[in-house]
Amino acid sequence: MTPVILLTGFLGSGKTTLLQRLLTDPSMKGAAVLINEFGEVGLDHALLDRIDDTVVVLKSGCICCTVRGEVADALSNLHSLRARGEIAFDRVVIETTGLADPYPVLQTLTAHPVLRSHFTNGGVLTTVDAVNAVLQVEHRSEAVRQIAAADRIVLTKTDLTEPEMEQALRRRLARINPGALILTTEASVDVILEGFGSTAFANTLAGEGGGDPLCGPTCDHAEHQHTHHHDHSHNRHHAHHYDDALGVTSFSLVIEQEIDWTMFGTWLTLLLHKHGERIFRVKGILAIEGEDSPIAIHGVQHLVHAPTHMANWPKGPRQSRIVFILEGLAPDQIRRSFTAFMGISEARTAAE
Amino acid sequence: MCSLCGILGCDDHWTNAIVRPGVYTRNHDTQSRRAEGLRRLKSANAVLSYRRLKLDVWQGRSYVMTSPTGGSSVFEALSHLWSEAEALSGRDLDPLDDDLIEWMEERTSL
């Protein structure tokens, strides 16, 4: 399986500049690169291809039809050329347009009948402009989607902003996507790409590294401590609304009882069918009935990756925890729906 | 094959993933596949009963959904379950709807 690294970020956030830097690293020597447009930054790479930015979406409501046609064609073409021995590559980097939602590309990798046997998600790298991101996050849902889908965030233009502003931005990014590691362009390419593009990346996503996979390595867990039981009258304050205009919320559902895997699948597929557009990310560790080890799930909008086994439970009590990053949906209603479907007596929401 | 778009081999749904290293699935062998299939029918039918729909397996490979008025639809991929249910009943199926939540509370608390 060839890993596909998705490089995304809002307009002018420095994607191409970062890509240019990444491609100079020896580890990226064997990378094939797909870009949407030739920008101002010149790229000199042996395997540079171009994809047009048209999305094929059939209006049938069928998820497997949401295939980004040109990305699929470009990847198929690369695969054919490699199969014929005309080119060689060990990973693919796709640079999306600044307004692109990363989800369709991830969906292409999972749902395409041919590609899914040859390519796998190698991680989502999102560039965030430290000067303009605060405004973009407030006004552009595309920027929020790109940040929410990120496995790693690279802050650009930090030399043009005050340290306090950067800290405030980091806190805001951590609320949108508590699981992503946040770096700056000062970090070396090795650090930016660590673990990216390897076949073990899915396990890294699932927290095989030993830490808590649901919050970032820099997280001090302080906000997680403020959990509340929803039997109390003040339950509307449980989720942290960082942006009222967008209504983007990040919260986790904590469940002590073991979970019925089958009904969980039924519930989550229905929830994502109905509200997937507004659920930017769902990520969780589950204690499944009849299973000793934890199971990790990981989804972006309508797309859920195959669940994976984790070797060990993270520190703390053995309980299920599901993190949602969503827009305009009430966390307590999701909690009520979850407990009703699962037939469990109690689950609580906690701020992220 | 996806009955809506004609793409072959769509049914690698995350709830029923193909066996591969590291992946959690109950799709190991005929026995576990069949047992999980029955559990899935039961859990889906608990929800579908809210719209008086019934799901069954058709010829061991596909699904057939029937409505109380005699309507039916056959589909092959689980990813189509909820869109087929909405099409057949002509109504939304929203897990955050208070009435559906109460319906499920009654069923799962039995």
From TrEMBL, chain A:
Domain CobW C-terminal, chain residue ranges per copy: 248-342
Recorded catalytic activity of this chain's protein: GTP + H2O = GDP + phosphate + H(+)
Keywords, ordered alphabetically: Chaperone, Hydrolase, Nucleotide-binding
Keyword Nucleotide-binding: yes
Pfam families cross-referenced by the UniProt entry: cobW (PF02492), CobW_C (PF07683)
Listed GO CC annotations: cytoplasm
Cross-referenced InterPro entries: CobW-likC_sf (IPR036627), CobW-like_C (IPR011629), CobW/HypB/UreG_nucleotide-bd (IPR003495), P-loop_NTPase (IPR027417), Zinc-reg_GTPase_activator (IPR051316)
UniProt GO molecular function: hydrolase activity; nucleotide binding
Family the entry assigns: Belongs to the SIMIBI class G3E GTPase family. ZNG1 subfamily.
Biological role: Zinc chaperone that directly transfers zinc cofactor to target proteins, thereby activating them. Zinc is transferred from the CXCC motif in the GTPase domain to the zinc binding site in target proteins in a process requiring GTP hydrolysis.
Name of the protein described by the UniProt record: CobW family cobalimin synthesis protein
Protein's organism: Celeribacter baekdonensis B30
Automatic annotation (TrEMBL), chain B:
Superkingdom: Bacteria
Name of the protein: Uncharacterized protein
Native organism: Celeribacter baekdonensis B30
